[in-house]
Design brief:
27% helix; seven-stranded mixed beta sheet; Aminopeptidase; single chain; 192 residues
Length: 192
């Protein structure tokens, strides 16, 4: 039995509910990577090597190996971009590298984008891909290829489709990681 002193709480109508706290501001700049950024970029990449099939690397590269890759793509004039927070944290990176090493492929590149866990689902992947496409166009590149794992990379497929990449082929069971076979989906975008 309720006493006069006790009044059950009533849920306020939605219009009288206190507003939800505003999400923390998510800001960043997209800039060219430098060698000084490579340890943080590599730390982010190592997370994907150890925990996902979005890269077929099974062992994380050393800093020396990564530095060599970085120098090679910079020598070719290809973009290597990072998204960096106002506090200096690397939130993600995007770069391209030769699709194949033979000289006739010099205008065709393969793209790669990785986001830090706190940056997923916030539009950063799209911002990095848009920036990468623009930089590749400015560099005189003609074709971008995305090679995407056929398992666990649905967000990457959707992102590339949104930016005009079209599926050009599939290959099943070409990678073996974490005791299972993985295929790839190839997508391509022609640059104007």
């Amino acid at each position: 039995m309720l006493t006069e002193e006790y009044q059950p709480r009533r849920k306020l109508p939605r219009t009288l509910q206190p507003p939800a706290p505003a999400p923390a501001e998510f800001s960043y700049d997209i800039v060219d990577a430098t060698e000084e950024h490579l340890p943080d970029v590599l730390a982010l990449y190592r997370h994907y090597v150890r925990n996902s099939v979005v890269t077929f690397d099974e062992k994380p590269p050393t800093l020396a190996q990564y530095r060599s890759r970085f120098r090679h793509v910079r020598k070719l004039g290809y973009p290597f971009r990072i998204a960096i927070s106002p506090a200096g944290t690397i939130l993600g990176f995007a770069w391209v590298f030769p699709f194949r090493e033979k000289s006739a492929f010099r205008k065709t590149v393969e793209s790669s984008i990785y986001l830090g866990p706190a940056a997923t689902g916030r539009g950063l992947g799209g911002a990095l891909l848009a920036d990468l496409i623009e930089r590749c166009t400015e560099a005189g590149l003609k074709e971008m290829i995305a090679v995407i794992a056929d398992q666990g990379a649905e967000a990457s497929l959707a992102l590339h489709t949104k930016f005009g990449f079209v599926e050009t082929g599939r290959m099943g069971k070409v990678g073996f990681k974490f005791e299972r076979w993985i295929g790839i989906i190839m997508m391509q975008k022609s640059l104007s």
